[in-house]
From TrEMBL:
<feature type="binding site">
    <location>
        <position position="193"/>
    </location>
    <ligand>
        <name>Mg(2+)</name>
    </ligand>
</feature>
<keyword id="KW-0460">Magnesium</keyword>
<keyword id="KW-0325">Glycoprotein</keyword>
<comment type="similarity">
    <text>Belongs to the alkaline phosphatase family.</text>
</comment>
<dbReference type="GO" id="GO:0098552">
    <property type="term" value="C:side of membrane"/>
</dbReference>
<keyword id="KW-0479">Metal-binding</keyword>
<dbReference type="GO" id="GO:0004035">
    <property type="term" value="F:alkaline phosphatase activity"/>
</dbReference>
<feature type="region of interest" description="Disordered">
    <location>
        <begin position="250"/>
        <end position="272"/>
    </location>
</feature>
<dbReference type="InterPro" id="IPR001952">
    <property type="entry name" value="Alkaline_phosphatase"/>
</dbReference>
<feature type="binding site">
    <location>
        <position position="475"/>
    </location>
    <ligand>
        <name>Zn(2+) 2</name>
    </ligand>
</feature>
<feature type="binding site">
    <location>
        <position position="353"/>
    </location>
    <ligand>
        <name>Zn(2+) 1</name>
    </ligand>
</feature>
<feature type="binding site">
    <location>
        <position position="400"/>
    </location>
    <ligand>
        <name>Zn(2+) 2</name>
    </ligand>
</feature>
<comment type="subunit">
    <text>Homodimer.</text>
</comment>
<keyword id="KW-0862">Zinc</keyword>
<keyword id="KW-0449">Lipoprotein</keyword>
<dbReference type="InterPro" id="IPR018299">
    <property type="entry name" value="Alkaline_phosphatase_AS"/>
</dbReference>
<feature type="binding site">
    <location>
        <position position="82"/>
    </location>
    <ligand>
        <name>Mg(2+)</name>
    </ligand>
</feature>
């Protein structure tokens, strides 16, 4: 192997350095030399040997996957990119590379490094193109459900309270808690939004955030709002972080961060202060409530057993708009969560949602959506450094896709937010590579399509052009990817129904209904097949992280 090929193997997107486990080591070894190597890639790509050697290295790595990891998964982590369809993954990969000064196409996301990839069929029981509630019930509770409902089977009817009782289904988070594991929820949306709520709630309407959002009939029939269920259904969730403060406080209670803005006031009609109740219950259990980044980082995870972090009245800001003094990033929340949860010798289950990928697409603001996806990938990297593939099953997937695309025969290294290199042969106007099938970006000026060269199409809030005018862009119905690594990750293969995912994760962790294959007394995985050298390296990595 030539010197340049050796350098590329070491440095190319921090690849092939003991996989993701020791990717930090490449930065130490290579330093600024990586940048110089990338400048030489253009010439190297003209050499057929470059591609052949790269393929052979990839093949060599693939052959090692024949030795399947059949350990018991002590820890299980699900990263859910809300609305992160395959086109979003590809575009986020390019953006990640371009943010580092590369062309982008050759970059690897952290999830790209996972050894197993499958496809998930996302339809709801009553919808070809799904919503985030019915899909969350599938990948968390293992049961397909109707759109708009969380934690209930398809026998429950949306918004009909009297169809709730008897149709409740429990989630993998509860299965893990019942097995003695610590459990956590981290999201960039409200903690009672569609995705996280399916982990603990049983509700026929995803929009019943607080009792102030419920019809009188539902309240009289005994249905509970989702915020209340967060604290009552599984009262000892170890870590909860995200937004949603206003749904926890009595109506008209000023928000602690925005006391002068009435839209952020409390919404509860029952007069309950759910945060105060949680704080009182946890004060003798090393439980802490925080509402800003400073308070979060004032905590020592070693001294925290329970954490409730509500950083905004509703959803957290987009990463591009985040106040880095007051709001933590998704990566920072994941870091704290794992450091708290991993103290349990029986392991943990963690649900992490990059929830605002979806919001960016709905708004037609691709730049926000893709930066949210890149931030979630950073969180995946951090989780990998804090855990081991030998006892931690990590799954990355999406609930659904969006009608988002990019094309136009753009040249290599073209800004992912830039123009296509050709004009339309119909209206003789330029167009951006990124387009939506529908959404708020549909704009006519003087009876014709807007000329995008007259606007700042790389602005953070630019709404990409859409074929059909809608106030909000819609979900897409195609399959989404499932990336997996760790114990029994190979069971996530082929094209699968979405509800299959939690059954695999539970099987790998020996929790839930199917435990006949579990044979260890302690529930801990055997690491007897790990080489002494790798065991030492993993131990060093754990101490450093």
């Amino acid at each position: 192997m030539t010197k340049i090929h050796s350098d590329i193997e070491k440095c190319h997107d921090h690849y092939l350095v003991l996989q993701e486990q020791l990717c930090w080591l490449c930065v130490i070894i290579c330093g600024q030399r990586c940048k110089h190597v990338f400048l030489r890639l253009v010439e190297q790509e003209k050499d057929p040997g470059f591609w052949k050697e790269w393929a052979q290295r990839t093949l060599k790595n693939a052959l090692t996957l024949q030795d399947l990891n059949k350990n018991v998964a002590k820890n299980i982590i699900l990263f859910l990119g809300d609305g992160m369809g395959v086109p979003t993954v590809t575009a986020a990969r390019i953006l990640k590379g371009q943010l580092s000064g590369q062309n982008g196409e050759e970059t690897q996301l952290e999830m790209d490094k996972f050894p197993y990839v499958a496809l998930s069929k996302t339809y709801n029981t009553n919808a070809q193109v799904p919503d985030s509630a019915g899909t969350a019930t599938a990948y968390l509770c293992g049961v397909k459900a109707n759109e708009g409902t969380v934690g209930v089977s398809a026998a429950a009817v949306k918004s009909q309270c009297n169809t709730t009782r008897g149709n409740e289904v429990t989630s993998i988070l509860k299965w893990a808690k019942d097995a003695g594991k610590s459990v956590g929820i981290v999201t960039t949306t409200r903690v009672n939004h569609a995705t996280p709520s399916a982990a603990y709630a049983h509700c026929v309407d995803r929009d019943w955030y607080s009792d102030g959002d419920m019809p009188a009939e539902a309240l009289q029939s005994g249905c509970k709002d989702i915020a209340r269920q967060l604290f009552e259904n599984i009262p000892d969730i170890d870590v909860i972080m995200g937004g949603g403060r206003r749904n926890m406080y009595p109506r008209n209670t000023p928000d602690v961060e925005y006391p002068g803005d009435k839209k952020h006031n409390g919404t509860r009609k029952d007069g309950r202060n759910l945060v105060g109740e949680w704080t009182d219950r946890m004060k003798d259990k090393r439980g802490y409530y925080v509402w800003n980044r400073k308070d979060l980082f004032s905590l020592n995870p070693s001294n925290v057993d329970y954490l409730l972090g509500l950083f905004e009245p509703a959803d957290l800001p987009y990463e591009l708009e985040r106040n880095k003094e007051t709001d933590p990033s998704l990566t920072e929340m994941v870091d704290v969560a794992i450091k708290i949860l991993r103290k349990n010798e029986r392991g943990f289950y963690l649900l992490v949602e990059g929830g605002r990928i979806d919001h960016g697409h709905h708004d037609g603001k691709a730049k926000h959506a893709l930066h949210e996806a890149v931030e979630m990938d950073r969180a995946i990297t951090r989780a990998g450094l804090l855990t081991s593939i030998y006892d931690t099953l990590t799954v990355v997937t999406a609930d659904h896709s969006h009608v988002f695309s990019f094309g136009g025969y753009t040249h290599r290294g073209n800004s992912i937010f830039g123009l296509a290199p050709i004009m339309s042969d119909i209206d003789q106007k330029p167009f951006t590579s990124i387009l939506y099938g529908n959404g708020p970006g549909f704009k006519f000026v003087n009876g014709a399509r807007e000329n995008v060269s007259t606007v700042d199409y790389e602005h953070n809030n630019y709404q990409a052009q859409a074929a059909v005018p809608l106030s909000m862009e819609t979900h897409g119905g195609e399959d989404v990817a499932i990336f997996s690594k760790g114990p029994l990750a190979h069971l996530l293969h082929g094209v699968q129904e979405q509800h299959y995912i939690p059954h695999v994760m539970a099987y790998a962790a020996c929790i839930g209904q199917n435990k006949n294959h579990c044979h260890t007394n302690s529930g801990s995985p055997s690491l007897s097949h790990i080489s002494p050298t790798l065991a030492v390296l993993l131990s060093v990595k754990w101490l450093l992280c």
